[in-house]
């Protein structure tokens, strides 16, 4: 199976403007932003989606959320707020089969989202 765009970014085979990186996570702007700030946070280890992460790898979730907190602070979003979204499967809005978290902010976000 060919690599996803996110796997290619992790492997540095595709370009992305990396805003944050640690041993577990990369963060970069979404190429189709849905808000003034729209950052994708991806684990370096491939998991197709939320539902596919086995229990022995559940620490990936805390790494993603901790990185999102750091990026939100870096972008000064904590005062007015932001939204974190994780899509799972086609009906959930997933377009790339690689676990990822969306950080959205920079404007008031309405509810419901979809």
Textual characterization of the structure:
With 114 residues, the protein is an alpha+beta fold. The protein has a five-stranded antiparallel β-sheet, with helices on one face. The model has no long low-confidence stretch (mean pLDDT 96). The chain has a single domain (5-105), classed as HIT family, subunit A, CATH 3.30.428. The longest helix has 16 residues, at 59-74. A hairpin with a 3-residue loop joins strand 1 (20-21) and strand 2. It has helices spanning 5-10, 59-74, and strands at 20-21, 25-29, 37-43, 82-85, 101-105.
Short key terms for the protein model shown above:
globular, HIT family, subunit A, about 110 residues, 2 helices, 5 strands, alpha+beta
């Amino acid at each position: 199976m060919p690599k996803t765009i996110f796997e290619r970014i992790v492997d540095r085979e595709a370009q992305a403007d990396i805003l944050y990186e640690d041993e577990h996570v990369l963060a970069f702007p979404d190429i189709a932003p849905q808000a003034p700030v729209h950052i994708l946070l991806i684990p370096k280890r491939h998991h197709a989606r939320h539902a596919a992460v086995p229990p022995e790898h559940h620490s990936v979730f805390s790494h993603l959320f901790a990185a999102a907190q750091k990026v939100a602070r870096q972008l000064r979003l904590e005062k007015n707020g932001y939204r974190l979204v994780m899509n799972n499967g086609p009906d959930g809005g997933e377009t790339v089969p690689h676990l990822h978290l969306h950080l959205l902010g920079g404007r008031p976000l309405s509810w419901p989202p979809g």
